[in-house]
């Protein structure tokens, strides 16, 4: 039997998914602050807390989205990020997993593979935070290395699970790394911080087909080796 706390943790984990269409409804500032304050209890090696967060809502969010829209006229997919988002030639099974995710996502909206324009048009909603009223930009000091990348993931997951606990949804977004120049021009980010990702936070648009996507996972047997 699971106790109630365990059930709540499992609910948050299992109901979290990447939402890619949000309602415009505002997220109260004190709720966002609460979520971020609790999320900052995330562990980090040596307690470095190697992260910085830029929380955008209202005018600041709109400014970044508008600046990204301008940039897209020149670079529709942004420019090179400061780090390779994926390895250049993904091996199996990773390549197929990525492919299947893309196919499943566009299938929810009936966008076939050869309709590149429609696919790009949907993908570009990344740089509108998919309509979410809150956008986060997550940065890390450039001196940090592999160990600290894991730390960043802990913080992001905390934010995403706490968001669920408060009725919100999220989408983590590496796609903002490709707009790092725009992000830098628009926000007070010091040169020694690298732009890792963004995150959309808000209330899910339950009527949008893309939010019906349930991404698959490899079965436990494929991932876990129990060593006797
Ligand atoms: C660090 C990170 C960055 C991501 N960046 C993007 C992104 O830029 N755009 C997007 O639509 N999804 C992005 N995703 C969402 C993944 O595609 C998603 O987590 C994965 O397909 C599993 O689906 P789920 O989150 O719905 O469980 C990102 C996820 C993570 C963890």
Can you tell me about this structure?
The structure is a single chain. The protein has 228 residues and is of the alpha+beta class. It has a single domain, classed as NADH Oxidase (3-Layer(aba) Sandwich), CATH 3.40.109.10. The protein is built from eight helices and four strands, in the order H-H-E-H-H-H-E-H-E-H-E-H. The chain has a four-stranded antiparallel β-sheet, sandwiched between helices. Helix 1 (4-15) packs across helix 6 (146-165) and helix 2 packs across helix 6. The mean pLDDT is 96. Bound molecules: flavin mononucleotide. Residues 17-18, 20, 101, 126, 171-175, 197, 215 line the site of flavin mononucleotide (FMN). Flavin mononucleotide binds at residues 17-18, 20, 101, 126, 171-175, 197, 215.
